[in-house]
Amino acid sequence: MRPTIATALLTCAGSALAQDFSHDGNYGAPVSRKNSGPMATGFIMSDAGTKSHQASPPKYPSPWGEGLGEWAQAYQQAKSFVSQLTLEEKVNLTTGTGWELESCVGQTGSIPRLAFRALCLQDSPVGIRDTDFNSVFPAGVNVAATFDRKLAKARGAAMGAEHKGKGVDVQLGPVAGPLGRTPEGGRNWEGFSPDPVLTGVMFAESIKGIQSQGVLASAKHFIGYEQEHFRLVSDSTGYGFNISEPNSANMDDETMHELYLWPFADGVRAGAASIMCSYNQVNNSQACQNSYVLNYLLKGELGFQGHVVSDWIGTHSGVASVLAGLDMTMPGDSAVYNSDDSYFGANLTVAVLNGTVPSWRIDDMAMRIMAGMYFVEGNRNRGDINFNSWSLDTYGYEHFYVGGAIGKINDHVDVRGDHGTLIRHLGAQSTVLLKNIDNTLPLTGKEKLTAVFGEDAGSNIDGPNDCSDRGCNNGTLGMAWGSGSANFPYLVTPDSAIQSELLSHGSAYESVLNNGALDSATTLARRANVSLVFANSDSGEWYIEVGSNLGDRNNLTFWGGGDELLDTVASQCNNTILVIHSTGPVLLEKWANHGNITAILWAGVPGQESGNSIADVLYGRVNPGAKLPFTVGKSRQDYGTDILYTPNESVPQLNFKEGLFIDYRSFDKHNTTPTFEFGFGLSYTTFSYSDLHVTKLNASEYVPSSGHTNPAPTYSNYSTDPADHLYPSNFSRIPLYHYPWLNSTNLTQASGDQHYGLPGFIPEGAQDGSAQPIPKAGGAPGGNPMLWDVLYRVEATVTNTGSVAGEEVPQLYISRGGPHDPVKELRGFERVPIQPNSSVTFCVDVTRRDISSWSTFEQDWYVRNSTKMVYVGSSSMNLPLSAVLP
Ligand code: NOJ
């Protein structure tokens, strides 16, 4: 008999054309994966539509911001400001002043005449990089594992508040590229999940959270940045690889839209005020000067109203990049750090004066930057920048790299508030319970002797911040390495937290924190009532090599002898619990099936409260409810994608031949059974699913956007006489600093650098400021608003059938039913608390976007005439409820 249950009705979780363009095929150069329709032309791919040397078609002019959607007021305010600016002041907004010359990782010029201080751009996606008295939050991959929108937003708001408190204007995060095409990808942990819907939701909520504090989010890296190897020529040659250009991510048009662009659409719709373009090339055109991805996709189709900033040294040209959609260059230097010249700065002034960059375009660049400031109320309470990225000393050089005057450079403002509580909570809420034989967990703390094993449980004896940008793997893995790091204010290790827990119960506790001390481990494990083995796997950014891993991981096994330690302990103790800290999947098949390993927990990259968070789960104060944000396969080959570790050409070609089939989509397609599937996670209670209802709603028919923009507006006049743009008299220059003024009235020499006089090439249409057609799939930030019309409401009942309160993440998957579509794709989820013997209604509004496919031919979304299924359950492989979408 079913228990009597109390049902709480949830607000329905919004998760994405009523026409069938059965002729989807090719449209010019963008390549179609399917090529199935009668009008298909061009490349014919048997499996997936991508190939080496695929080209990005030119798309000009660069769309001008018009104040679409909620941006109208911000554009009005920006107009009043930008209309007052001189040409040089506009150029100053667009150009970094140079590497390590000012306080922030990136800093623009200022506008002293209007008391507008420089814009400060600062890493990172887990906190504030390169300062002190800041918090270190759990990484993006942990946020994804919570499947909890509210926590994503709360974390964003807390990070935004900390950045605001230090005087930062633009936080360089969150991350949706890499998405996670390969499990070894070095920076996957900075982002969320290889599932675009889960990433899109967490990305959007993080952006809203950050921007709620008056700080612009620079959502990054746009786009196709899926591996560290060969992302930049300079890094590559440093490691002995001879490449001539950054790698090229080659992908077809459907894969772009249905996978990699998807979360960015969510980010733009959420109001992202800044987007950072990436280091790689996309279809053999540099991402930061790729008119197809910046002009056509981002500013055209997605209606992005903010600014595009280059990744650091990711700008490869001046005029070409500006015409292709780049609005700000960072850190301002040209091809190498601390070069004496810039592609922007004075070169941009020259380009505007000689007409190669139209005046409407420089106005648009300034407008996009300033509109973002007004849009997020970035001008509100704009305090001083009170820290210095290059030194933690209180006093130091004002312009670090070149020295000069010494002054106060750090106020050491403590911006942490009570964020430690949120961080601890997030750490526990993101811990995934993968195995729990006979209710091994939770522990009581009264076990007579608890033993903890592994370097990953202890501290780095040289201190938590010993290695620059966390570029080592010593002690517990609270954070991975690279620019996505921050300095720990403290790091609670599992060793210390678990010891405190046990001492409070009067129990005995011992730990062996040396992975190589196998004899000691054997002796201790034999005596222990419960053995907890901590093992990890780290990764990071390409500019730091850790244990011969060049950012991307070389394998999916545990680091530092973790597997051997685990084997040793588990051979001695029949109550061995494995706790994993890792940036992504680790191979667990052997351990999942090991009779003495009674429980497995994945704790990800949890930040400063690591030990407290894991103790909360181990000792049952938190009932785990997180789910795997990726698949744990039985072997790395099972993923079907991998890093290109050795260049295949002088311009490494990364052919995304798998199309949409990454992570669980690939496992489904090839019918490969993983060890633990995407979306899987146990609880200390159990849940059942019943009563699936699908209601078709009366949404109006999809209408492609149409019409034209207004002609490009211009906001001021300037003298075209070079003499009016020379350096002010008696101006004292800081060495290596990038200024907007000219050295000479001879425009071929006026910028004073090596780049003058190069033969110019202006792509057709690039200077055209006349009204332009609005893309069918565009018309508003994020894309055609009708994509978010709700077509169906899906409801199901989830019941807590166990004896303790718990949290479940019911998941909704859809099969779009086309011959080349994935078996199923996540389209909705909600994290819900449920009391024992109680039920909740899980409710998802299925949008038009959720069941649409991209038509390469129409360059628009459409609903295929196919049988579509909806599935509901607790993971991607446990979906007890299903129905046809009527
Ligand atoms: C390069 C990284 O790719 C990017 O994520 C970061 O924001 C910049 N460096 C600035 O540190």
How would you explain this protein's 3D organization?
This protein has 886 residues and is an alpha/beta fold. Helix content is 21%, strand content 16%. It contains 19 helices and 31 strands. 1-deoxynojirimycin binds next to loops.
**Distance N to C terminus:** 32 Å
CATH topology of the domain at 419-631 and 677-685: Rossmann fold
Helix percent band: 10-25%
Radius of gyration based on Cα positions: 27 Å
The name of the CATH architecture of the domain at 419-631 and 677-685 is 3-Layer(aba) Sandwich
Name the structural class.
alpha/beta
Q: Under the CATH scheme, which class of the domain at 419-631 and 677-685?
A: Alpha Beta
Low-confidence stretches: 1-10, 14-30, 35-48
Shape: globular
Please, how many helices? 19
Assign the CATH superfamily of the domain at 419-631 and 677-685. Answer: Glycoside hydrolase family 3 C-terminal domain
What percentage of the residues does DSSP assign to strands (E)? 15-25%
- Main sheet, how many strands, which sense, barrel? 6 strands, mixed
Number of DSSP E strands: 31
Ligands present: 1-deoxynojirimycin
Mean pLDDT level: 93
Give the strand line-up of the largest sheet: 3-4-5-6-8-11
Architecture blueprint of SSEs:
Layout: E1 7-9, E2 13-14, H1 72-82, H2 87-94, E3 106-107, E4 120-122, H3 140-146, H4 149-166, E5 170-171, H5 196-211, E6 216-222, H6 233-238, E7 248-250, H7 253-260, H8 262-269, E8 274-277, E9 281-282, E10 285-286, H9 291-301, E11 307-310, H10 319-324, H11 346-353, H12 359-375, E12 395-399, E13 403-408, H13 419-429, E14 432-436, E15 449-453, H14 494-504, E16 508-512, H15 518-527, E17 530-537, H16 562-572, E18 576-582, H17 589-592, E19 597-602, H18 610-618, E20 653-655, H19 664-669, E21 687-696, E22 790-800, E23 806-808, E24 811-815, E25 825-829, E26 832-834, E27 839-847, E28 853-855, E29 860-862, E30 869-873, E31 881-884
Parallel strand pairs: 1-27, 2-27, 4-5, 5-6, 6-8, 7-9, 7-20, 8-11, 15-16, 15-17, 17-18, 18-19
Antiparallel strand pairs: 3-4, 9-10, 12-13, 14-19, 21-22, 22-27, 23-26, 24-25, 24-30, 28-29, 30-31
Helix pairs in contact: 1-12, 2-12, 4-5, 4-13, 5-8, 13-18, 14-18, 15-16
